[in-house]
Every structure is written in structure tokens, then in C-alpha cells.
Amino acid sequence: MGARRKQHKQNRRMEYRRWYRPLVLIVLVVAGWQLYERMPAEIMPIDNVKIEGTFEHLSRDDIQLQLKQVLTGDYFTADIEAVRTSLLSLPWVQDATIRRQWPSTLQIRIVERQAVAYWSDDSLLSDTGELFTPKQMTKEMQIPVISGPEGLHHKVWGFLVTLHTELSGLGLGVDRLELDERRSWSMLLSNGVELQLGRNDTQRRIQRFVKVFSMQNAPKLDDIKYIDLRYPNGFAMKSKTSQEKESGADLNNISGWIRHA
């Protein structure tokens, strides 16, 4: 008899446990949901946004406006990656890192793009080789203008770097470099002299130019308007005051012009 009662109690206890746990779980879920519904939208609002970086072309107002459009939620729920992606869409932003700083601050560090050249009339080339188009284009920066067929900006920039190295011995730089649709090169030097390099043997031609004008008895570059280096064994040049002259391998000095192969 006692054994039956004991078994009966055990069965009731097991039946109670079987219903008790799900019931507690349901109560907790309902209570949690009610608590969530009554909680404020932002438990820990972001009270401060620190923007760090050195800016020459970026506007802090543009950055703030971009943040207002995308920054939602609180300290814990703000979508940091969405904020970063939004900032990277600004033309002058090279990189952005965002960190939470306890208890209510977002720390944003922005790296501004460094432009090294104008590309055609509507874009800029960065020091990382990327083209970007600011909302407002000005030609106030003291950087060269390069142009060429679409997709060849890396090639044009690479040749510009080579030219600066070759011309450094003459104390010259390149203000404008163009690669046309026929893949022919032309340029404007920093002293205002125009050069035609053509399509082939461009580096050899520029080296010949540097060699000739490094000589003591070379014509003064300040007196020259235009030089055509496309000749196989020499070049033609036009002064600011005279007609075009030609030079050849077997000529030394004619009418005051030095002729070199």
C-alpha cells in the first residue's frame, strides 16, 4: 500500500515537472516581450561623435550630413559598417575607421584622399591610383593634368613618374601629359615648352632631349616654344620668335641652333 502511494506521488511529480518548465518559459517570453515594448527606443543613446583627421578638401559639414542620414540606433545597436560604407561614398574619403568609446561616444577617424593629378576635365587621380570625381572641381591645385583613353590612367600616371625622373636633371617637371587615341604622347613642360614624343621609343627620345639640353652650348629652353622629338635621329624645334628648324645626325650648328642626333 505504501509503495503504491509512493509511486503515485512520483508520477504526479513527474507530470508536474513536465508542464511546469514550458509554462515558466512561456511566462518569461511574455514578460520579456512586454518589457521590450515598454523600453525606450535607445537604451544608451550616442551623445558624442568625434571626427578625427586632417582635412584640406573634405568639409566637416558634409561629413555630419552624411552621418545624420545613416546613423541610427544607440551605442549598442548602431550599424557601424553601414556608417563606414556611407562615409566611403564621399569622393574625398580614402578610408574611415569607426570605434565605440564607452559609454556613449563614436570615434570616427577619416583619411582624406591625396590627389596627385587631374584626369581629363572632370576627375582626379589619387596617390593610390584611383580615379574619383569631387562634387566641385577646381583647377587651383598645383598638380599636373593628365589625360588619355578610358581605363589607361595607370599607364599615363606611370609614364609621368618616369618623365619626372628623367627631367629632374634639367630642373623641369611636366604640367600636362596627354596620350591620344592613336597612343601618341605629347606634353607641356613646367617652363612652358611643348614636346611631341610620338608613339614609339618614347623613353629613348626623352633621354636624348635631356642629353642635348644638358650640354653647355645647348639652346636656351626659355627661348623655345615647341620641340618635335618624333624624328628617328634628331628633332625639330621652333623658337618663340622664329620658324621651325630641323636637326639631323650630320648637322652641328645652323643659324644659331644646335643640331644633334
How many distinct helices?
Answer: 5
- Tell me, what's the shape? elongated
Instruction: Specify the structural class.
Output: alpha/beta
Are there runs of 5+ residues with pLDDT below 50, and where?
244-260
The separation of the N and C termini measures: 127 Å
The strands making up the biggest β-sheet line up spatially as 6-5-4-7-8-9-10-11-12-13
Strand content: 25-35%
| Main sheet characteristics | 10 strands, mixed
CATH-wise, what's the superfamily of the largest domain?
Answer: Cell division protein FtsQ/DivIB
The tally of beta strands, per DSSP, is 15
How many structural domains?
A: 2
Describe this structure in words.
This protein has two domains: about 60 residues, Ubiquitin-like (UB roll), CATH 3.10.20; about 140 residues, Cell division protein FtsQ/DivIB (Rossmann fold, 3-Layer(aba) Sandwich). It contains five helices and 15 strands. The strands form three sheets. A ten-stranded mixed sheet has the order 6-5-4-7-8-9-10-11-12-13, covered by helices on one side. Strands 1-3-2 form a three-stranded mixed sheet, covered by helices on one side. α4 runs parallel beside α5. The longest helix is centred in the first third of the chain and has 37 residues.
Care to give the gist of this entry?
By secondary structure, this protein is an alpha/beta fold. It is 32% helix and 26% strand. It has a ten-stranded mixed β-sheet with strand order 6-5-4-7-8-9-10-11-12-13, covered by helices on one side. A three-stranded mixed β-sheet has the order 1-3-2, with helices on one face.
